[in-house]
Amino acid sequence: MSRSGRAASAAGHGGQHAAVETLAQRIFKGTYGEGDTLVVPELMAELDVSQTVLREAIKVLTTKGLLDTDPHRGTFVSPRDEWNLLDTDVLRWKLAAGVSSDFFADVLELRRSVEPAAAALAAERRTDADLAELDAALRTMAATEDDPALLVRADAAFHTALLLASNNRFYAQLRRVIVPVLVERDRAAPASERRFGHPHAAHAAVVDAVRDRDVDGAYMAMLELLDVSAREHP
Fold first, then answer.
1. What are the domain boundaries of the chain?
2. Phi/psi-derived region of residue 197, left when phi > 0, alpha when psi is between -120 and 50, beta in every other case
3. Chain centroid to CA 231: how far?
4. CATH, range 7-82
5. Is 77 helix (H, G, I), strand (E, B) or coil?
6. CA 189 to CA 170: how far, in whole Å?
7. Mind listing the pLDDT tens digit for each residue in 185-221?
8. 138 neighbors 165 (Cβ within 8 angstroms)
9. Can you tell me the distance from the alpha carbon of 121 to that of 224, in angstroms, rounded to the nearest whole number?
10. Where does the HTH gntR-type domain start and stop, copy by copy (predicted)?
11. Residue 127: CA atoms inside 13 Å, Cβ hemisphere, count?
12. Rounded to a whole number, what is the largest CA-CA distance in the chain?
């Protein structure tokens, strides 16, 4: 491909990405409601993209459950229960648009189903490298008394390390859902507003059980950590 051809390809890819982001943001902000039909010629002119670029952008959003097509209706916004919140882009757009307390409650229910079991598996299967990652997250957490932003990063690192330490490929993948929501929740509730003390001790209890290969202890310690989290973020 010639240099001009490569430049055109890059420009087209950039235009597609921008179109995907714009359309997704409009869907999540409610500019386009469920069932609304997209008028392709108008969007091409408004976004200043070719029909090919817009079609590719629509294809991306269709695979993520945000859009659907019908021979009679054309391209339209899918019902919300079709949106794939396990997709990292969809979750990112959802968080950026703002979420309600019931959204965090739903994620907490997911965490209660996943993280205690992941902790139990970590106690059984963890490696020295897994422990090193957990210990590193704990050390950072211990040093965050006056640094809320650092505490958010330490908490994210801890839960990432724990899910990976389960050595279960599906639990490990769920870090892509759980951790971004934790970060958004913690940003919305600064450490200065904590009612139940610094979280280091509760996290350390999980790591101690994982270190000791105490399967039941790890499960219960993680469940207690989540109970504290639920009280901290009602």
1. 7-82, 100-232
2. left
3. 22
4. 1.10.10.10
5. strand
6. 29
7. 888 765 545 566 789 999 999 999 999 999 999 999 9
8. no
9. 17
10. 13-80
11. 9
12. 63
